[in-house]
Amino acid sequence: MMTFNVLILIKLLVIQYMCALSVAQKFDFFYLVLQWPGSYCDTQKGCCYPKSGKPAADFGIHGLWPNYQNGSYPSNCDPKNPFDESKVSGLTSSLREDWPTLACPSGDGLTFWSHEWNKHGTCFESVLDQLGYFKAALSLKNQVNLLEALENAGISPNGSSYSLGDIRDAIKHAIQYIPWIECNTDESGNSQLYQIYLCVDKSGSNLIECPVFPHGKCGSEIEFPKF
Question: Which of 126, 123, 151, 121 is nearest to 137 (CA)?
């Protein structure tokens, strides 16, 4: 027969497990954040190309981030489940192509991917495991094809400035949902197209209308720099 102390211990362990599971599941939607490399590099901070070479002139993945409808988000939910390179080894070539690192010093991408999994991916492991997380982000990125959507509307990364409204409308026309656009500034202080936020349902599979947008704003005219 179990002692009273053993029963108490079992109850505490069950409660701890359920709390951890609740944390991993409790979010409302994802942000898929796609980054223009030309804008990342065209700042005073600059950039470093990955060891595999200069990435293609295309939007790259920054992350797939769980969020709450009040604008806040969970992070670093499970330190006991760190990034494991072996779990995504079959995706390495795709990650290098579609999720490249531009941070200095030059790297192989592992530090970047590790950060994204540890900070964001551990908060919804019950929905997507580590392999599923990276697969979902890659699939979504290729599904939307932002650069094609913009170029079809006559908006090209040639250093010219474009209307913020035209950029937003071009993306909405292509994907049927309103994006949120983040800008940064170049070395001269000009506003430039930096990141596009798209919203994704809790399964990590389907685009949805954003329940809430991040804070910040761009100018009415923004640069689309070369890369």
Answer: 121
Using alpha carbons only, what angle is made at residue 34 by residues 85 and 103, rounded to the nearest 5 degrees?
55
CA distance 135 to 130: 9
pLDDT of residue 19: 40
Using pLDDT thresholds of 50, 70 and 90, give the confidence band for residue 44.
confident
Higher pLDDT, 24 or 164: 164
Q: What is the CA radius of gyration of the chain?
A: 20
CA–CA separation, 133 vs 54, rounded Å? Answer: 25
The pLDDT of 137-164, averaged and rounded, is: 97
Q: What does the alpha-carbon distance between residue 195 and residue 184 come to, in Å, rounded to a whole number? A: 9
Q: How far is CA 35 from CA 7, 13, 41, 54, 203, in A?
A: 52, 42, 11, 15, 22
pLDDT at 188 over 70: yes
Cβ-proximal residues to 7 (8 Å cutoff; 6+ apart), any chain: none
Total residues found in the chain within this entry: 227
pTM comes to 0.88
If pLDDT is split at 50, 70 and 90, which confidence band does 3 have?
Answer: low
The band of 101, judged by pLDDT with boundaries at 50, 70 and 90, is very high
List, by residue number, the catalytic residues: 62, 116, 120
User: Are the beta carbons of 196 and 171 closer than 8 angstroms?
Assistant: yes
